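Chains adopt folds. We examine one example:
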Amino acid sequence: MPKPTTLYRCSECGWTSPKWVGRCGECQSWNTVLEAGVTPRSRQATAIRPATAARPITSVDTAPVEHWPSGIAEFDRVLGGGIVPGAAILLSGEPGVGKSTLLLEVASRAAATGRRVLYVSAEESAGQVRLRAERTGALHDELFLAAETDLATVLGQIDDVEPGLVILDSVQTVSSGLIDGLAGGPAQVREVAATITRIAKERDIPVLIVGHVTKDGQIAGPRLLEHLVDVVLQFEGDRQTALRFVRAQKNRFGPVDEVGCFEMNGDGIAEVPDPSGLFISRSRGPVSGTCVAITIEGRRAIPVEIQALIVPSQAPNPRRVVNGVDAGRVAMLLAVLEKRGRIAIGGSDVYVSTVGGIRVTEPGADLAIAFAIASAARDTPLPPTLAAVGEISLAGEIRAASSAKRRSAEAARLGFTTLVDEHAGAIGDALRHALASAPARSRAAAEPSALEAVG
């Protein structure tokens, strides 16, 4: 008989070790390696003749993946054309962002096409889900509700209803009686996700699974959860604003660079097929400290207005306040503007923000941020038909941004006749040209500039 050994397993990634360690050797997590029990030492594996011989990859038949539309175009855009039969789709997001509202709308649209939908709510009662469905207009006879927290009972509901689409809300609140531990634990989440995924594959039923996230934005539970499912979607948005984004982090049936745009309102959630006007202010006249950047969200070009305000400061450490942009990049751009652009900003408070609550993190918005700050520092408005795209280096050079053709086409569609990009030269030359072409203002109406150019 082989000698039994004790194994220790990481609760996050499943890595095993013959002895206890404080830090997982695979995912580097601390205090996640627990005793998995005593198992016999495995013998050497022996070869078995396979039932199907390996073939050259060129001789393997390919079958196209069939998608059926969910009825929500922005959701289908992210999925790559729609929902694939037998697919396991994980939708994660912060509490209160609108995950349940979105999936209830998907369930209603699917039921309206004649598909029987089973919505399993493990967090709310069936009555609470019914109230939300009445408010959002998601009532349909083919939409079945079940409030269950036991995995075996959920499987029984699937057997009785025989749905064409299953929605589980959420995987962290369902538990199996065959596994020890509380609901939401790594072992329970692994068992529930593996069972639901297996049912989806065996019966060719698409399953939409809601997943919670931790305080740092990661999906709660073991990392194995993301490997088990076919599609991982991230539902993002600030609860202080109505705008929501759905991004694909993993997709076995389509691209992972698409973004769906939604807006929360009193009637539920609505698609925003053209979000171009959401992030641009409608000022009546020229205003200093504003510049439009053409950003890329997935494959979609979106214009975003960057606003800046520069005021003199008497404090020894002037304030740097940003909203919607990266604070580190703004600090770097301030240094480049002062050194390469000859604009003195060190003794002033600097405020930089985006319009509409959108967050811009790509380097292609550097030039628009720099233009907005320079315009505020000189108290000179930029031309209203000017947009800027480009990354700024520490040497003051303007580098090309990705998807240049898509950005220029969107700028032309929205009426921006001047697109400043990498062809403008260095940042100093681009600033002088942009500010020199600024619209004339009445000297009596213009306030004196708080800052002067250096040199």
Notes: The first strand starts at residue 4 and ends at 10. The chain is about 25% helix and 25% strand. Confidence is low (pLDDT under 50) at residues 442-455. The chain has three domains: 4-40, 73-273, 278-436.
